[in-house]
Specification:
The structure holds 2 protein chains of 2 kinds.
Chain A lengths: L2 E5 L2 E5 L4 E8 L3 E9 L6 E6 L5 E4 L2 E5 L3 E6 L8 E9 L6 E3 L3 E6 L1
Parallel strand pairs in A: 2-11
Antiparallel strand pairs in A: 1-3, 3-8, 4-5, 4-9, 6-7, 7-8, 9-10, 9-11
Chain B lengths: L4 E3 L2 E4 L5 E6 L6 E7 L6 E7 L2 E5 L7 E4 L6 E5 L8 E8 L8 E2 L3 E5 L1
Parallel strand pairs in B: 2-11
Antiparallel strand pairs in B: 1-3, 3-8, 4-5, 4-9, 5-6, 7-8, 9-10, 9-11
The chains are: A mainly beta, B mainly beta.
Chain lengths: ~110, ~110
């Protein structure tokens, strides 16, 4: 069964303290892995798509990487405005078009 | 048109009532998706359309739920005889039918069933 597991469930950082979020996945044929940011009471905001192992994408203080079993979202020198829930999702190949999401990591960055 | 829009943003209803939500996708996107999200969980897929055709439905979508996309543009999601367990955020997303498959989400409709 396709499954996405994110860890940790919650993470508290001091401003400037770099860290990584993990997304482990089990899927029959990965078409793409997606990272989203979600603020309270809002819809998910698209961040990155990764398609193959070894691929990396960067945006400001965020960097996403992909292996055959997991993805990492690295946050360098975070600021309070990076506080949000970060969601990972997989898109399976073979004619399926839904995204399968993990439960997310709630990140709090304190000044 | 700068993104996916959803209306209403909030809906409070009594158990047993029917509710309908609307989603307007990004205009050039021909795929439209509905997801449901409960507190502390990631979104769960409900159904998706390519143009006006409903191509996939989750087993989560009971007989009380129906979705339409009559002209391949906006979509509606109706829940009949609402139950307290239907309380959730209902999210709509849209994408192109090929290429990157990136799905862009709207702000959601928060449903509270009392």
């Amino acid at each position: 069964e396709d499954q996405v597991t994110q860890s940790p469930e919650a993470l508290r950082l001091q401003e400037g303290e770099s860290s990584s979020l993990n997304c482990s996945y089990t899927v029959s044929g990965l078409r793409g892995l997606f990272w989203y940011r979600q603020d309270p009471g809002k819809g998910p905001e698209f961040l990155f798509t990764l398609y193959s192992a070894g691929e990396e994408k960067e945006k400001e203080r965020l960097k996403a990487t992909l292996t055959k079993k997991e993805s990492f979202l690295h946050i360098t020198a975070p600021k309070p405005e990076d506080s949000a829930t970060y969601l990972c999702a997989v898109h399976r190949s073979g004619g399926y078009n839904k995204l399968i999401f993990g439960a997310g990591t709630r990140l709090a960055v304190h000044p | 048109d700068t993104g996916v829009s959803q209306n209403p943003r909030h809906k409070i209803t009594k158990r047993g009532q029917n509710v309908t939500f609307r989603c307007d996708p990004i205009s050039e996107h021909n795929r439209l998706y509905w997801y449901r999200q409960t507190l502390g969980q990631g979104p769960e897929f409900l159904t998706y359309f390519q143009n006006e055709a409903q191509l996939e439905k989750s087993r989560l979508l009971s007989d009380r739920f129906s979705a339409e996309r009559p002209k391949g543009s906006f979509s509606t999601l109706e829940i009949q005889r609402t139950e307290q367990g239907d309380s959730a955020m209902y999210l709509c997303a849209s994408s192109y039918a090929s290429g990157t498959y990136e799905q862009y989400f709207g702000p959601g409709t928060r449903l509270t069933v009392t």
